[in-house]
């Protein structure tokens, strides 16, 4: 017997990570971090503020203390730890809404992962009977949380892209499937000579305009327009089309259709596809798990792509790929020019 072999408890602990995800989801949805922003509080105080039961909340909070989300003061008061601080709604690097999304719709899709493994089909569609986007059209609160979650996980890459790509000669940037425009907004903040268009579903555009009008980016609406549209059908004219974190939601055939729509709209400008890549021998656990997530929640037969597949998709849609680069966030960008 190998005395150094992992204990069975290691495997049991790994399977318990689903519970950890749900514990984080609970405190994110209840807004616990917001209630701790000013001062430490007892679990009884938090239970009253959030409308839940103190004993279950205490168990959840104490479990999360072990992971650095919270700290315990004087044996009974909870305060924010470094990770827990990022569950505050107004934290500049908040991940509250992503944790809410991950513990709700995404979590349900993970539960159907055996269906995905058996069929190659979306776990989320198996659970809800619709695609993620159709589900959001029927559930406005889920759509609101999703919009904010995408903002949260896109902020750093947006700022990096705004500062690292050469926008010389560009007048109008089109953010394709851009949600609330976190990418194009970062670019417009950094380059005041540019104008922007953000294309997404009607409901997404309406929420985005309201949110931005009440934010520090309100003045950007003078240079930024939101256009309701379908990137499988038609896109407005522009000089630079950015397709960031869109293609990973779709299988190869759908990706070609999206980029063909860009190709029809493009007149002498460029396409910029921004995505994470996952190689067959990928060393990053985060990227490997993200590839599993995509299979569970996205369109049937969707899979993470390596550089060769990304180039092949762009070329099939009518683009050459003269340049590519990598952002500090790990995303790769591919510049496409009409073939």
TrEMBL record:
Recorded GO MF terms: O-methyltransferase activity; protein dimerization activity
Annotated coiled-coil segments of the chain: none
Entry annotation: catalytic residues: 248
Domain of life: Bacteria
Sequence ranges assigned to domain O-methyltransferase C-terminal in this UniProt record: 122-319
Enzyme type, top EC level: transferase
EC numbers for this chain: 2.1.1.-
SUPFAM superfamilies, per the entry: S-adenosyl-L-methionine-dependent methyltransferases (SSF53335), Winged helix' DNA-binding domain (SSF46785)
The entry's keywords: Methyltransferase, S-adenosyl-L-methionine, Transferase
Domain O-methyltransferase dimerisation: 14-87
Biological processes per GO annotation: methylation
Keyword presence, Transferase: yes
Listed name of the protein: Multifunctional cyclase-dehydratase-3-O-methyl transferase TcmN
Record organism: Enhygromyxa salina
């Amino acid at each position: 017997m190998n005395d150094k072999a992992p204990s069975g408890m290691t495997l049991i602990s790994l399977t318990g990570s689903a519970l950890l995800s749900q514990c984080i989801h609970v405190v994110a949805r209840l807004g616990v971090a917001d209630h701790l922003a000013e001062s430490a509080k007892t679990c009884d105080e938090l239970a009253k503020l959030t409308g839940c039961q103190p004993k279950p909340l205490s168990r959840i909070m104490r479990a999360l203390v072990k992971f650095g989300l919270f700290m315990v003061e004087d044996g009974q008061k909870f305060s924010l730890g470094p990770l827990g601080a990022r569950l505050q709604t107004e934290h500049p690097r908040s991940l509250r809404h992503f944790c809410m999304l991950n513990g709700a719709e995404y979590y349900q899709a993970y539960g159907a992962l055996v269906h995905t493994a058996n069929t190659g089909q979306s776990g989320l569609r198996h659970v809800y009977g619709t695609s993620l986007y159709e589900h959001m059209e029927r559930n406005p609160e889920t759509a609101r949380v999703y919009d904010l979650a995408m903002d949260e996980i896109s902020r750093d890459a947006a700022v990096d892209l705004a500062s690292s790509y050469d926008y010389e000669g560009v007048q109008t940037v089109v953010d394709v499937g851009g949600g609330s425009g976190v990418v194009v907004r970062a670019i417009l903040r950094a380059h005041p000579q540019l104008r922007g268009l953000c294309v997404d579903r009607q409901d997404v555009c309406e929420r985005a305009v309201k949110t931005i009008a009440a934010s520090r980016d309100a003045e950007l609406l003078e240079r930024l327009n939101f256009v309701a549209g379908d990137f499988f059908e038609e896109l407005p004219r522009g000089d630079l089309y950015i397709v960031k974190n869109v293609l990973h939601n779709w299988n190869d055939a759908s990706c070609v259709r999206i980029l063909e729509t860009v190709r029809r709209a493009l007149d002498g400008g460029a396409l910029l596809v921004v995505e994470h890549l996952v190689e067959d021998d990928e060393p990053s656990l985060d990227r490997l798990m993200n590839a599993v997530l995509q299979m569970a929640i996205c369109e049937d037969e969707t899979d993470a792509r390596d550089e060769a597949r990304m180039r092949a998709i762009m070329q099939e849609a009518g683009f050459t790929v003269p340049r590519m680069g990598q952002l500090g966030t790990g995303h790769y960008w591919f510049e496409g020019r009409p073939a």
